[in-house]
């Protein structure tokens, strides 16, 4: 099983894989290699479905991740994130309809819609990787401030500042309830 902390990197790899498959599929159809085109586009769709499942799993468990960059990086990041988010919401229906046209041999409609679907899908895949790099590598926050909503796994983390009475009963607060739980978003 993949640890939750590894899912953002997996998501970026899935986005990058989808982008490569989309570009390869585009080049294949330009060269009239229909079987390769079909295989690449179906693989890109499957990769994107796996990405979506992984993305939702991560964010349902961890919550929202804050961007720690300052200055000029913030408007650039949020512009990329905003366009990525809006267009990402369009991709599932666009991709499904585009693929269904091809599956039903309605190639004129498939081509017309694919002219919008492909660049949008490619943009979303590439910007997904850019967002990952900016959020988790270039402008990575400290772990204590990164998460807005905490995961249940974080709540069960060992308390290194536990009193002897808390340590004796598994880190739970004593009968008086003197210990307060802090969220991972607290400084």
What's the overall average pLDDT, rounded? Answer: 83
Q: Report the radius of gyration as a whole number of Å.
A: 22 Å
What would you call the structural class? mainly alpha
Which band does the percent of strand residues land in?
under 5%
Counting H and I runs of at least 4 residues, what is the number of helices?
7
Number of folding domains? 2
Describe this structure in words.
By secondary structure, this protein is mainly α. The protein folds into two domains: 4-146; 157-187, no CATH class. Helix content is 69%, strand content 0%. It contains seven helices and no strands. Helix 1 packs antiparallel against helix 2, helix 1 (7-30) runs antiparallel to helix 4 (107-138) and helix 3 packs antiparallel against helix 4. The longest helix is centred in the middle third of the chain and has 32 residues, at 107-138. It is elongated, with a radius of gyration of 22 Å. The two termini are 31 Å apart. Mean pLDDT is 83; it is low at 144-187.
């Amino acid at each position: 099983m993949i640890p939750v902390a590894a899912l953002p990197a997996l998501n970026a790899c899935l986005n990058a894989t989808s982008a490569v498959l989309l570009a390869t599929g585009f080049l294949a159809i330009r060269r009239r290699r229909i079987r390769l085109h079909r295989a690449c586009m179906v693989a890109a769709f499957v990769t994107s479905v796996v990405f979506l499942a992984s993305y939702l799993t991560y964010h349902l468990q961890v919550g929202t991740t804050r961007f720690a960059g300052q200055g000029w990086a913030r408007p650039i990041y949020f512009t990329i994130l905003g366009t990525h988010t809006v267009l990402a919401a369009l991709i599932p229906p666009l991709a499904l309809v585009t693929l269904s046209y091809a599956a039903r041999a309605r190639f004129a409609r498939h081509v017309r819609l694919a002219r919008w679907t492909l660049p949008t899908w490619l943009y979303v895949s590439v910007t997904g990787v850019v967002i990952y790099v900016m959020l988790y590598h270039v402008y990575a926050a400290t772990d204590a401030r990164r998460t807005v909503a905490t995961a249940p796994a974080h709540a069960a983390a060992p308390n290194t500042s536990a009193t002897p009475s808390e340590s004796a009963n598994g880190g739970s607060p004593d009968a008086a309830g003197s210990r307060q739980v802090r969220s991972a978003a607290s400084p």
